Amino acid sequence: MFILTTDLLRGLNEQQRAAVTLPAQHALILAGAGSGKTRVLTTRIAWLIASSQLSPQGLLAVTFTNKAAREMLTRLSAMVTVNTKAMWVGTFHGLCNRMLRAHYRDAALPASFQILDTQDQLAAIKRMLKAMQVDEDKIPPRNLMHFINGCKEDGQRAAAVEAFDDYNRRFVELYAAYEAQCQREGVVDFAELLLRSFELLQRNQLLREHYQLRFRHILVDEFQDTNGLQYRWLKMLAGAGNVLFAVGDDDQSIYGFRGADVGNMMAFEREFRVENLIKLEQNYRSAGHILDCANALIANNHARLGKDLWTEAGEGEAVRVQELVSDAGEAQWLVEQIKAIVRDGDRRSDVAVLYRSNAQSRLIEHALFSANIPYRVYGGLRFFERAEVKHALAYLRLIEQDDDDGAFLRVVNFPTRGIGARSLEQLQDLASRQSISLMGALARASASDLSNAALTRLRQFQQLIHSLRQSTAMLPLAEAVALVIEQSGLSQHYSHEKEGQERLENLQELVNAAASFVMEQGFQPDTPISLVATDGSDLNPVLSTFMPDMQTIMAGSNEAALTEAMSPLAAFLSHASLEAGEHQALAGDDAVQMMTVHAAKGLEFQHVFITGLEEGLFPHENALSEAQGLEEERRLMYVAITRARERLYLSFAQTRMLHGQTRYHLRSRFIEELPEQHLKWLSPRTQQRWAQPGSASFGFQHGMSASMAPLGNDQASLLAPGRKSEADAMGQGSKAGLRIGQSVRHDRFGDGVVVSLEGRGDDARAQINFGRQGLKWLALSVAKLQLI
DNA sequence: TCGGTTCAGAGTATT
DNA sequence: TCTGAACCGA
């Protein structure tokens, strides 16, 4: 055992080793990009187990993505031989699901509660608004969803939310109605998984103590991404006696917009009186110039715990910077650079093209496609999000739980069975009058409620679900899925559809996914889908007499039985909701990798292109008006820079087509923040003078005389056809020497670019993008502009 | 029920 | 400019 543990430490640097071997005390590991974070996390677990400080069932390790959880388990099992089944390693949502399945009754949920993904949740909200006859224009479903999830992430039930005006009161009312609907249908959304689990522990002392006694060591990955509720959940489980080991990087916090709160890192340090703060600053990924750029950039942020990356690898190549005339030019330039990289012997898959927003990918794709360069775009629909897959899953959900109105409505008339909106409305009326589900209402419906024809068809659907349930009950999962696809009519439907071939293939893929799921979960391959291994014998007799409602401390004392306590079908449905699957992408053999900067987090590439480095785009203009928005954008840039191992390219364009308009942007301030000595300008570096911050107020400046440069003689030719007033303004503008795209200097706002012109005579105005100072309309008759 | 037209909106994303 | 959703007529 001793040899084993020292083996584990081999190759770790001093800080990594210190982190791995910390005594059983709370710790915060500040792990910089490329500093071996995952290695430390997994080695820490292996170390604790190998040195007998921790038994596998005492471990709780939490991540944000299934991918990270899988990676942790894979690497862990390569280090030590352990029973991974006994450990709780997974995502917050996955673990909460696990807990709620085990204690569904205590959590006031049906045994077969279903999980709503974001799509499902939005559909449920729309359905509710419709049923309540709420105008979607007054209450946009997305806003309501955002509101509800926000409340849940704050740990607040509708009853607890304070509303100070009528508008908010309405939201709270609808939140309450949504809660009721979910409860009635036996479904929970993602935020609900967290909140239910949290409330369960909070309310139920026995359960809380049980889990607190169990999880001696709690490890959290990407701690900077936790939201308020996740942090409280962790605190709850940590109790007074357990050890919380948090790994994160405040400089890589880029998910504030979805509720992540970097402040949790500081709160953790304070509230847990963390004495072990270890910084992992040695970087094993990027060359020196790249790291120095990253360090210099992020030093512009104020709210930081502080950290500087360094490397032994040497300075490497300078960071290349390229200015281009247009977005199309940028795409073309990319193509040429990538060709050169490939010519020099590197693989296309060693190249990543990063951008701030998805919309930017189209032009780049176009250019790569035209140049016959294979590429792969991350993003887009994922496997379990596809319509045909969701349809098949809806049938499976109805087999498992027929109160699920969302699933019911999704497939009651798909494939079409002549059940129209009218019949469904009547059925919904019936259901809401009695506060029961649609399937329940259907069971009670009589000829007085619906037309005979409609009732017959609905009954046939009911019968279909019933017979599917019967005929699949004893089948293994994959066969059951195949049967459902066949007998529901989905298969036939798509085989007649023009472009149904791909959908059929996806449905076949679903059958395969079911088969491999059964294998991975360790079910016997032929376990019938409905077989639940729960038997009362595991129940702790003391507890069950002591507290009859507390059914499943048993699951706690025999955790290995937990997944087995669910039927293969129930487990598969959870899996399908909790893991949307891989992003669809043509699995190009050797393809250039294209993705947003967000999607690139955690990845690394030999060559990285960061494109569209323009004010308004990156940093994104929307972010500038948000609290802390700029700092988050800067962290995003930091993440982007630190993806590169060897060579980093930065590019920006003078003009870009955005929302159907040609826009003129100044180059990103983030380029200005990089030290000159680490850069290599491929295009000449142009002067860019920034206005001093703090003079942003704008009004028409009366009494100021316009001092314009003399009129250029090529202006007329630049007049573009456009709206009449625009053309007039262009005429007026040309007299002043202005044209769209013209660079100008303003005393107060600094340097800018003319974006548009309008009005005539004394009313002629120019819209100018002053970058940091924003977009301004200036009256040409008063504004003091200088051409540059 | 399908197919076309119209209209608004256009940021990043995991579970 | 482009897309997706909503809507309307056959």
Number of strands: 21
Strand content: 5-15%
The outline comes out as globular
* Rg of Cα set: 30 Å
How far apart the termini lie comes to 73 Å
The helical percent reads: 40-55%
Largest sheet at a glance?
Answer: 8 strands, mixed
Structural category is alpha/beta
What is the number of helices? 31
**What is the residue-mean pLDDT, rounded to a whole number?**
85
Low-confidence stretches: 534-564, 691-730
Overview of this protein structure:
By secondary structure, this protein is an alpha/beta fold. 44% of the residues lie in helices and 14% in strands. It is built from 31 helices and 21 strands. The strands form 4 sheets. Strands 9, 10, 11, 12, 13, 14, 15 and 16 form an 8-stranded mixed β-sheet that branches. The protein has a 6-stranded parallel β-sheet with strand order 3-2-6-7-1-8, with helices on both faces. α11 (228-238) links the parallel β6 and β7. α13 (288-298) packs antiparallel against α29 (629-641). It is globular and about 80 Å long. 45% of the residues are buried. Residues 534-564 and 691-730 have low confidence and may be disordered.
Please name the defining characteristics of this protein.
single chain; 788 residues; alpha/beta; eight-stranded mixed beta sheet; six-stranded parallel beta sheet; 14% strand; globular; DNA-binding
Break the fold down into its secondary structure elements and pairings.
Elements: H1 2-9, H2 14-20, E1 27-31, H3 37-50, E2 59-63, H4 66-79, E3 88-91, H5 92-102, E4 114-116, H6 118-131, H7 141-153, H8 166-185, E5 187-189, H9 190-203, H10 205-214, E6 217-220, H11 228-238, E7 243-248, H12 263-271, E8 276-280, H13 288-298, E9 319-326, H14 327-343, E10 351-355, H15 361-370, E11 375-377, H16 387-400, H17 405-411, H18 421-434, H19 438-444, H20 452-472, H21 477-487, H22 490-496, H23 500-520, H24 541-546, H25 553-557, H26 568-578, E12 592-596, H27 597-600, E13 605-610, H28 621-624, H29 629-641, E14 644-658, E15 661-664, H30 669-672, E16 679-681, H31 724-735, E17 743-746, E18 750-758, E19 765-769, E20 775-779, E21 785-787
Parallel strand pairs: 1-7, 1-8, 2-3, 2-6, 4-5, 6-7, 9-14, 9-16, 10-12, 10-13, 11-12, 13-14
Antiparallel strand pairs: 14-15, 17-18, 17-21, 18-19, 19-20
Helix pairs in contact: 1-3, 2-3, 3-4, 5-9, 6-7, 6-8, 9-11, 13-29, 14-15, 16-17, 16-20, 16-26, 18-19, 20-21, 21-23, 22-23
The protein binds a DNA duplex (15 and 10 nucleotides) through helix 5, helix 9, helix 27 and helix 28.
